[in-house]
Every structure is written in structure tokens, then in C-alpha cells.
Amino acid sequence: MKENAREAILLAAREAAMARGYAGINFRDLAATVGIKAASINYYFANKALLGEAVARRYWEDISREFEAISANADTPMDALRQYPGVFRASLARENRICLSSFMAAEYDELPEPVLREVQAFADINVAWLSKELVAAKIVGPDESEARARAIYAAVAGAQIVARSRSNIALFDTLIESYRSAGLLPA
To answer: How many other CB atoms are there within 10 angstroms of residue 160's CB atom?
Structure first.
């Protein structure tokens, strides 16, 4: 039961953060969602900063596994790169949510240092994966891959934010297509 409660808290906190950011992580609301007393959350996470850190770490770990699966199942590195925006699109498709790390990054001044490190780790794993796939697809050389990967990450995350602000997933799709037409993303 203890592990199930911890996992339920992490899941509820992840959903809250994807909808309302770090500020949206509230022990009372999480307890109501999970079906436990608010004070019981402190058994698993002594404070909001520790919970936020665990949620952000789990988020980038999950996305990292998703990237590994994309790489393993794609026919080519180019195919893997074409699938990348879908990771961000999936959040929008779930009740207009956005990437937890994008939301939390916007709260930079309010984040405890351990939470910020995990949020930055999300960006780092995106850039590392994109860099690897860009080189494997022979789109750029190793010296240019990180800059290109950062541009792609920023563009796709930005498209997600713009689409969320309008509650319009079709706008995300349009922006991604414009990135492909401009040559930023593989067509």
C-alpha cells in the first residue's frame, strides 16, 4: 500500500504541475485526489520541494525512456526525429496540458534549487537525444548538433505553449509544419 500511495501522489502531483505548474502542487488537493489525509503526504514527501523534485525527476526519466523507445522502434534516425513533436503534442491532447518542465521553467524564480535542477535535466535530455539523432541522420555534424537540438527543443516547446494559450492543438500542428517547411525539423 505504501508504494501505491507514493505512486498515486506522484501521479496526482504530475497532473497538477502539468495543469498549473509548481504553484499548482498543493498537498490538500493532492490528498483529496489520492484519497488520503493531507498530513499523510508528509510521510512520503516531507515538503513541497521534495515532492516537486521527485515529480520533475520522474517526468524526465519517463520522457527519456520514451525517447529510447522512439529510437529503438524508428526505422531510421530521420523517422525518430519526425516523431519528436508528438511527445509534446500528447500533453496537449490530454485536456490541454503542457510539458511539466516547460511550465515549471517559467516559474524559475519560485523554484527551489533541487526542483530547478530536475527541470533543467529535462531540457538536457531533450537536447542530448536530439543531438544524437541529428548526427545519426546526417543532418548536421557533431559540432553543430547541440545548437540545432536546442533550437528544435525551444521551437517545439514554444509551439506547445502557444497552442495551449489558445486551447488549439491544430495550431501546434500548424506550427510544427511551418518548422518543417522552414527546414528546422525534418520533413
So the answer is: 25
Which candidate, 32, 30, 68, places its Cα nearest to that of 52? 30
pTM beyond 0.85? yes
Check residue 3 and give its pLDDT.
Answer: 74
Residue 36, Cβ density class (10 Å: 0-12 exposed, 13-18 middle, ≥19 buried): middle
Grid-cell match 521553467, residue found: 105
108: region left, alpha or beta (phi > 0 left; psi from -120 to 50 alpha): alpha
Q: Which residues are CB-contacts of 15 (< 8 A; sequence separation ≥ 6)?
A: 33, 97
**C-alpha cell read off for 184:** 528546422
The grid cell for 75 is 526505422
